[in-house]
From TrEMBL:
It comes from the Bacteria. Its main location: cytoplasm. Belongs to the KhpA RNA-binding protein family. Transmembrane segments: none annotated. Keywords: Cytoplasm, RNA-binding. InterPro entries: KH_dom-like_a/b, KH_sf_prok-type, KhpA. The gene is khpA. It is found in: Cytoplasm. This is RNA-binding protein KhpA.
């Protein structure tokens, strides 16, 4: 049974986790802790050569919570995402689409 799962993972390529996936997981965890409506949060990750763009979509009301006063919250999220990105070998940009 485990052999079938391994061969299925190899066929679909789902066992290969991109470095940006770890960063996206971190961003999602932080954002979901900030917003009122977690179900409306979605992340769109666009990978290119050595970099990734993470676009966070959420309710308009929650966009203000993610951005924070004078942009301090999103700046902190970007700092954490970039730190993890450099650790896993990719540069990262985080944008809020609201």
């Amino acid at each position: 049974m485990a052999d079938q799962a391994d061969s299925l993972d190899q066929a679909t390529g789902s066992d290969e986790e991109l470095p940006s996936d770890k960063v996206a997981d971190l961003v999602e965890y932080i954002v979901c802790g900030l917003v009122n409506n977690e179900d409306a949060v979605s992340l769109d990750v666009t990978d290119s050569e050595g970099s990734a763009l993470i676009e966070v979509s959420c309710d308009e009301e929650d966009a203000g919570r993610i951005i924070g006063r004078k942009g301090r919250t999103i700046k902190a999220i970007r700092t954490l995402a970039r730190a993890l990105g450099s650790r896993v070998g990719t540069s990262v940009e985080v944008e809020v689409l609201g």
